[in-house]
User: Fold these one by one.
Assistant:
Number 1:
Amino acid sequence: MSPNTWPAEAIWEQVYPLLPDFTVEVLPEIDSTNSELMRRARAGQHEPTLLVAERQTAGRGRMGRVWQSQAGDSLTFSLSLPYAPKDWSGLSLAVGLSLAESLHPQVGLKWPNDLWVHARKLGGILVEAASMGGRSQVVIGVGLNIRPRPADGLNTPPAALTEWRPGITAAQTLGLVAAPLIQTLLNFEQTGFAPLQARFEARDVLKGHRVHTSDGAQGLSLGVSPSGALRLQTASGVLDIHSSEVSVRPFPAEDKR
Ligand code: BTN
């Protein structure tokens, strides 16, 4: 795909009234868009930047995992901006919600921030922050499967956006999600997650299901709290899980533990 097909200018025109120093960059290849924007933040480059890579050679997922993607079959980008919310909790949920609402009514959210459709993973989000000299910068990385991909080596079978939006390209998808995502981040900085709780709940794929976590908890998901914690009804009471360094999976439907 040629960089010229990316809607960089259109996105810039939508966003620059909100973020005057905003830039959009499209690279044919880089190790990881998150790694690059974190390097820039640590080097003191704080301009709000949307960085798209047609191909990542070392894409990173949550919890130290690898994020694999094929040029043209997926959308990989990161957004970096100076950021100072009163409360960071629930930020990754807000990002997932913004993406889901921009993509399709059927896109669900699996706490904390996976995009799921019918128990398959459509995309993931990696939120990182850098702090330098009293300023903080957030880097939000997004990977979306646009066209079907092999399930080899994945914990969760993949879904592809073209199943619900036939013919859509990575570039068109970027055009749909970028400006609303930036608006969501600016709103979140002022008001946090609580105003988004009900909209998250409408897409919450875990609520009402029995789940288990990577650190050994299990229970019935009661949904998310106003601060974005996952609320589990366990045998010993209600447990609020705040850490994003935990992965959560539903038990298979027939499993009544
Ligand atoms: C996950 O579900 O584990 C999160 C995946 C995040 C992948 C995106 S692709 C663009 C950005 N650059 C990276 O190296 N990772 C994120």
Number 2:
Amino acid sequence: MTRSGSSPKTVFSCTECGASAAKWQGQCPGCGVWNTLVETIAEAPPAAGARRFVALGGGSGGVQTLSEIEAREEDRLPTGIGEFDRALGGGLVAGGVVLIGGDPGIGKSTLLLQALAGLATNHPVLYVSGEESGQQIALRARRLSLVTGRLRLLAEINLERILATLQAVLPRVAVIDSIQTLWSEQLASAPGSVAQVRECAAQLTRLAKRAGITVILVGHVTKEGALAGPRVLEHIVDTVLYFEGDTHSSFRLIRAVKNRYGAVNEIGVFAMTDRGLKMVSNPSAIFLSQHGVDVPGSCVLVTQEGTRPLLVEVQALVDQAHGNPRRLTVGLDAQRLAMLLAVLHRHAGIACFDQDVFVNAVGGVKISEPAADLAVVLAIVSSLKNKSLPEKLVVFGEVGLAGEIRPAPRGQERLREAAKLGFTRALVPEANRPRRAAADIEVIPVRRVEEAVGRLRELE
Ligand code: TYD
Ligand code: MG
């Protein structure tokens, strides 16, 4: 069989259904989806490696019942950077593969260099850089005042050579910065292509499991917000962390979106300083903007990230539309905004169909929980009426299609955090009303969206 345009050892397989084809084609012959075929290596991994892998997995490798398998907690190796460990679920796990994604320049290399320098004092570690030269990294380490006596570095992009080095050096923790710069000799496609990224990650994962090395992969995020070779990579690795934050502000969030060894949605918070990333141990107030007087269109939300409540200012701007009205969100779900506008119209009689509506979560934070709904609605009403919300007010609650306000999880913790930061009033779902009245914060429970809008008027 001849295959033009590719090396003889590769096939093209579909990232959706796994069907394979000898030649690249636009549409998958299996599931009919377009543009899903990527080049992959045809052969299975070498038999010797596979055998060793099975042996590590559980004695005979045969069928067992769950009760026969000893369920022990993974030993964790803390990185010494508390906020990073928190996002990881307590620390690194031997043989675990962690993917850290984020925009270029957000601080991935900085964080990992700091973490490895700390680990290097007690454990063998290896930093593999395909992006920066040894000299650049040494300079950065010096600027960060890191102790680097035992931190080993390899500037290399060839996968086979990296694998050989890892096998020879056997570090406890290895960083690959970044997965997009690596290339395997076995594939014809260019570094950074989906095929290369996937193959390199798969090979590194295999080695990590076999040799018990913790491998941390750095992945750049494309403009669309997905990691290059998007879902493919997330499936291969054990833990996926994303760096978030506005590169213009100094705060950075690191969020777990997948974790086979711990909870997801835990976040770690850092500030980028001229001496690298510093932990922010009490971050609940960093997403409040700093304007002194209350302004229309601004509403403070108490959101819950993992086990941690955060106060975030939600800003809305509603303005006369010229032509098609525009709906834009930053850090919030755009589809949800359209839904909230419809609810606001149908249930509270407030129409925005001839208005542009822009909504922003301050500080580059991304909020995905529905408990943000009520804050978005009230910020919109406030901007439309050009009236600021009452002072020292916080809000949370989900808005349903029927106009009802649904409870948010961990309401009491949210209220406590708001009170701690000096807020004196909270507009919350009826179901989140505390059983005993809180001493330091006045709780205003609401059942429906029109009631919430009405209560605002009374509060003025
Ligand atoms: P970097 O870790 O190189 O980002 P990534 O690996 O995610 O692409 O971060 C680079 C940015 O961080 C760069 O814009 C400069 C800034 N920075 C600081 O502000 N302080 C520092 O101490 C360091 C090392 C970087
Ligand atoms: Mg980098």
Number 3:
Amino acid sequence: MKTIDHLYINGEFVTPHGSEFMEFANPSTGAPLTRVRLADETDAQRAIAAAKAAYPALSGSSREQRMDTLQRLHDAVREGEHELIEAMLDEYGGPLATTTGTVRRAAASFAVAKELLAGYDFVRQLGSARVQMVPLGVAGLVTPWNANYSFICGKLAMAIASGSTAVIKPSEMSAMQTAVLTGLLHRAGLPPGVFNIITGRGDTAGAEIVRHPDVAKISFTGSTAVGKAIARGAVETMKRVTLELGGKSPTVLLDDANFEKAMPLAIAAATFNSGQACLAGTRLLVPLHRLDDAKRLAAAEMSRLKVGDPRDPATRIGPMVSRRQWERVQHYIRLGLEEGAELLVGGEGKPQGLEAGNFVRPTVFANVHNGMAIAREEIFGPVLSIISYRTEEEAVQIANDTDYGLHAYVFSGDVARANRVASQIVAGRVFVNGLYDEPLAPFGGFRQSGLGREFGIHGLEAYLEPKAIMGYETTL
Ligand code: NAD
């Protein structure tokens, strides 16, 4: 078992003040993996003080200096690709393709931020006012376990591009991945305090970041419940908040869609990242008169997905991150059965031969009503609910009948119709007739999927605030 007992504060690897340890197992095998010493409130305070001290120099640095910093961070992460992939496979169990994608996206986020910075207008003339976009100060970056590297790097890249320093509080469940990433980021040779990384529990280290008056902004990715607690806490010191929360995204198959082509994409959307994805399309809306076709194809496609060893390139679904997450998925499968949904494939328990790890059986339910818990609550596992509709209007109504609004997917043979439906769905992003990856497009949700946007110009501006100066040419 590997012991992880260092935090990264003020450019140094330090022993935590916190004395609590947590142990974690390899999710694929159940074998003990790590023993992690966690940061506490005092560690958070030290990290915040370091970030505060580093802020004047970073915020006063030139665009070119920050572009150079971002390039160095990019190169450092890129060079460590192999180590990063290995740690994520062991600790998280994401299938190889997902893991490789996450690692590459993490490195690329620094390159994307550098490009944005190169072309960004920090000063604009609005009427007689000169409006300057200024950084906020110390940013608290709080991230979940389901794509640890890309959340940390995506947020850090934008903070640095804006001129803000950072205190990063990754999930306690990603400590080994974070340790590898921290080592790489350190090699980029940034001035001490520009970024600090403190792995600890949310209710201790995380809560201190939310409470502390020297933190100006929180960028959080995680569950809606914690996001609400953070928003409530942040208002005390009027911190700016960006919240990227959960989802229960609809995939709308219109009746003129080619179901044979659309279904593999719809199933991929439902099972991205082993289903542990906020943007998963977990409600499949199909026209009633083509329901039988949809059920047959969805069941066949889901059954084809290989579950198992994340190192096997053929694997599409790895283990759930923890025993707790495994139990959560089981709970919802049971609930679906109790609520009267029709089980097409999958169900409770572990797939045969995979009893040691946190593996689940990819599951499709049909005959789901949008009022059922499996249609309303985020499961965070490979469980798809098929819901039928009669008309296009009803499809849109069901798609929008949710507390969330993060993502949507629309498939149709008529692109104008697909776009019409896409425009009526309340979601931060809609994919039409395919699956895409556009790092410049804003990412974030309506309603209880969050507040604000990340990525691209919108993401950069979430770390900036306008300051208007009038009379800047006036002498007295
Ligand atoms: P979580 O909300 O439990 O934890 C996320 C982070 O917040 C962790 O670092 C945790 O330690 C910290 N935290 C917990 N309580 C805190 C508090 N009181 N104050 C400050 N920090 C606190 O989420 P999770 O279980 O790690 O991740 C899964 C959830 O994340 C899912 O609900 C999923 O939908 C969501 N998610 C959203 C997106 C998105 O971009 N919208 C992306 C990925 C995951």
Number 4:
Amino acid sequence: MSREQRPIEELTIWDDARQMLEKARREGIETVWDRYQQQSPHCSFCEQGLTCKNCNMGPCRISTRKGGRMQRGVCGADGDVIVARNFGRFVAGGAAGHSDHGRDLIEVLEAIVQGRTSAYRISEEEKLRRIAAELGIVTQERSCIEVAEELMESCYQDFGSRRKEVGFSCRVPEVRRERWRELGIMPRGVDREIAEMMHRTHMGCDNDAPNTMLHAARTALADGWAGSMIGTELSDIIFGVPTPTRSKANLGVLDRAQVNILVHGHNPVVSEMVLAAAREPALVEKARQAGASGINVGGLCCTGNELLMRQGIPMAGNHLMTELAIVTGAVEAVVVDYQCIMPSLVQVAGCYHTRFITTADKARFSGATHIRFDHRHPVEQARRVVEIAIQAYEERDQGRVEIPSAPVDITTGFSVESLLAALGGSLEPLLEVVKAGKIRGFCAIVGCNNPRITHDSANVGLAKALLKKDILVLATGCVTTAAGKAGLLMPEGVSMAGPGLAEVCSGLGIPPVLHMGSCVDNARIIQLCAAIADALGVDISDLPVWGASPEWYSEKAVAIGLYCVASGIPVQLGTPPHITGSSVVTDLALGGLEELVGASFLVEPDPEQAAEIMDQRIQAKRLALGLTP
Ligand code: XCC
Ligand code: SF4
């Protein structure tokens, strides 16, 4: 079936993307938007969550009503049960992604402790000791390695079945912990909750939709307060705590004169090594001999965020820019670890001289060059990657190179630690401006792009609408590049903020949107919320805060959304998950959770409309705290 291609202006708001989409069309290269169109309209049963393939009596697909009666699957499962089971597995997939990433960091720490690596080391001993002490580990009169060993053991235990409560639940206000215990959703162990979700959703187990939803919340909490949080904290200990830094964003960060290497995926364990190799004088010299002026490492998606936060590398783009980055014809190598890497990148790279290099055995791509990274030889492996890129440069067809637009400036590096430092060491100044109504509330805008929505229109639209209402925005994941390209990650961005927020940000010299990292780094945001709630002596659900994911696509984004909601932070989504086939599940997500955990989801695609609703909620919460609305 052939369909008219949609006008490029409808696909994305950015000039760099539009220019590359035109080039892709000229050169006959298929993109995610083309395939989205081929797949539309989507199966309506699947869209509503009403298909089940969980056993071989099926697959079943059911209409909620047939002749007035609810249709059932072969086993007898009704629509509510099927939707809840599908949603539960969706959340488990997301929690597994973040948490397995976290586990990879524990394994690096283990290699350090056991002396099996010289490439990785503990670069933040202060943070190591602080985190260990928080988890109840004795740190006095013990060596750094002894403390690290016990921290590693403690983190591994958070993945197992022996604990009643994961370690970092100590950061959660006691009232909320009590609520989790009462509801039976206190996360016990990451792998345990994920495995239990798979068990519950096997035919003939959990056939009560609300009960399955509660376990979905528990699984998500295990992600937020264990898997992701471990990922973030150990990454800081090994690679450094981010501090405010300047960098650049958009496809203009690619350099016609240099060997361009893009790191893509999520885990800094690989990308940090690639960056280090690219900075080695011997390899830079090799690049020069090949005719380039140097080696340029740029970031895509979340591993880009990790390196941007800690090393200040420039960001070439977010999720929907990954194919288009290759279409510039200026990329020698795309080096990936795992998650959010479109399989199509292998084909797009194949249309150019671009080498597509995979590094993780758990994320191999047919047709890619595989260089397996391990803890013992990552430096050598990273050098091989860079050498391959240099060779590719010699094959680059300069006639096909088109690098759009000049890059824009951005600021990054707002970890909880650097935020506190900027505030003079305590949360007090922040609480003061919140109480005074200069900052009326906070919203973390997180997550992805999705070809259902004009690329970055909602990410940027929502940020701008909230800033006008004096709501400070925190950004992670693929929202980062969107906010950066819109000029919101620079102090000058305050011209787009309301008067109170503009005054505070100008005083501190910070942008109105603060970049807090990758998607696992949403753990920084829930930690900050918990600390603010503790400082005010209230529950997290009492705070004038929101989460939002206007253009989400991934299982991980839903896991994040659900752990925020279960932690008491309401969350806006631009599109609903596949749950609309069940009124029980939908009503719970959009309202019923409120009674249980003090927060729920809002599905509102229009950014202005969403900001309005979010603002009303913030007003109500401020009033309840005895503040001006
Ligand atoms: Fe993936 Fe993390 Fe979403 Fe971007 S924001 S599309 S999940 S890379 Ni994490
Ligand atoms: Fe059908 Fe039930 Fe099997 Fe699902 S578990 S495929 S609803 S018979």
